[in-house]
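User: My advisor, Dr. K., asked me to get a structural model of this assembly before our group meeting. I'm new to this, so sorry if the format is off. These are the inputs:
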Amino acid sequence: MTPQALIFDVFGTLTDWRTSIATHVTAAFAEKGREIDGEDFADAWRGEYQPALDRIRTGGRGYVALDDLHRENLMTVLAATGHSATFAPDEIIELARAWEQLDPWPDVPAGLLRLKDRAIIAACSNGSIALMTRLARHARLPWDCILGADIAQDYKPKPAVYHAACAALRLGPGEVMMVAAHEHDLAGARDAGLATAFIHRPDEFGPDRPTAPAQDEIWDFVAADLHALADQLH
Amino acid sequence: MTPQALIFDVFGTLTDWRTSIATHVTAAFAEKGREIDGEDFADAWRGEYQPALDRIRTGGRGYVALDDLHRENLMTVLAATGHSATFAPDEIIELARAWEQLDPWPDVPAGLLRLKDRAIIAACSNGSIALMTRLARHARLPWDCILGADIAQDYKPKPAVYHAACAALRLGPGEVMMVAAHEHDLAGARDAGLATAFIHRPDEFGPDRPTAPAQDEIWDFVAADLHALADQLH
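Assistant: The format is fine. Below is the predicted structure of the whole assembly, which you can bring to the meeting.
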C-alpha cells in the first residue's frame, strides 16, 4: 500500500542541521575575530529546542513560531557562553536565520522527487511556514505544500499537529504516512492513526554519537534513505 | 523593485477553469447518455461561486472550505437544470473534484519557474490547501508554499486573507505582491498594503465575453502573461 500523502520531518530527517549550523556560527564568530567550536555551539543551541517547545506543548505559553524560539534560544546560548555582547541585535536576528539555510542529506532532493511521483509530499515540521518555505528553496525540497506547526498552532509530537496536517489535505489519518528519523515523532504519528516510515540518519548528532537503527517490526517502513523508501513503495 | 514574495490568484489567473470544467462535465454527462452544453454548465456552476463566498465573507456562515462549496453549488446547478437524479452522491463528490484538474494557461508552468528564481511564489487562492495541492500537481504549479483562504479561514478580497498570507511568510504587506487577473482581487490586496500585478486573461469567460485590459496607472505592474511580468521584474 502506498499512502495518498507522505508528510516529513525536516530537521535531522532531511537536513544535516548540525553541520550547517556549525558552519554558520563558526563563520559569524570569525567575522568578529572570535574562534569557537561550531559543533559544540550547534549542540548547545539545539539543546534548548525541546525545553522551549515543551513549555508551549504543555500550555505554559501560547503558540510562538520556531523562528522566534530559535532567536530566543540563540540569545540563551550566547549568554551562557559569555558572548552576550558579541553580536548586535540585528546580527542576532540574522544569525538565527541560519536555520533557513540547512543543507540536505545527499539523497534528499532526488529522493523526494521520486516519492512525489507516488504521492503528495508535504513538510510536517515544527518549523513555521516561513522557515520551511525559505529552507525548501535553499535545500531543494520540492514540496507540494507545507504543513506542520503553524497549521496546528502547536508542536509535534502532539496529536493535533498530525491531525491538522491530514485535515488540511482532506485525508483521513490512515491515508497519510509520517516519515521521520526520530522515533518519538513516529510514535506520535502512529498514536494519531497515521502510517509510519523510519529513515536512519546515523550522523545527525555527529560521528561520535551515531543514532541507533530502528527495529523493523515497530514501524510500517524502515529505510536507510529516501531512495530505499521509494524502492519499498509500489 | 522586486517584492520578496509573489502571491497568486489561481482560478482564471493561472488556470483556464471554464474550458477544463466544461470538458469534465460534458464527459460526465456523456457517461450517463446525456448531452449538455459544457460551457453553459461551467458558467452556471461558477455563477454560484461569489454568492456562496459572500455568505461567509459577511459572517452569515462560518468558514467552509471551497471543496464543500463547489459540491453544494454543483447540486444547486444540477437541480436547476433538472438533473438532480442523474448522478449518485459519490459521483457528485467525484465530479466536484474537477476543480482539482484545471489546465494551466500555456505560459504558466514555465513562467512561474522564472518568477520563482526572483522571489518566493505562493498560491493565495480562495481554494483550500487540499484543492490547491492537488491542482498544483495536475497543472504543474511549482509553489514554494500554499497560502490563501484556509490560512485565513476567510475569503478574498477581505484584507485578513492578504494579511494572513504575509504573516505566514513573516513579511510585511509592502514586501509582497499580489498577482491576479481580477481587479477586485487586486483592489483588496492594494487596500491591504500589498503591491499589485494585473495579468490580462481575455479568454477567461470564453471568446464571446473577452475581459477588458487594465489601465496601466492603476496597478504596479500590468502584463500580458507571466513571462511579460518576469521581464518587468529585475
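One thing worth pointing out at the meeting: The first strand of chain B starts at residue 5 and ends at 8.

User: Perfect, thanks a lot.
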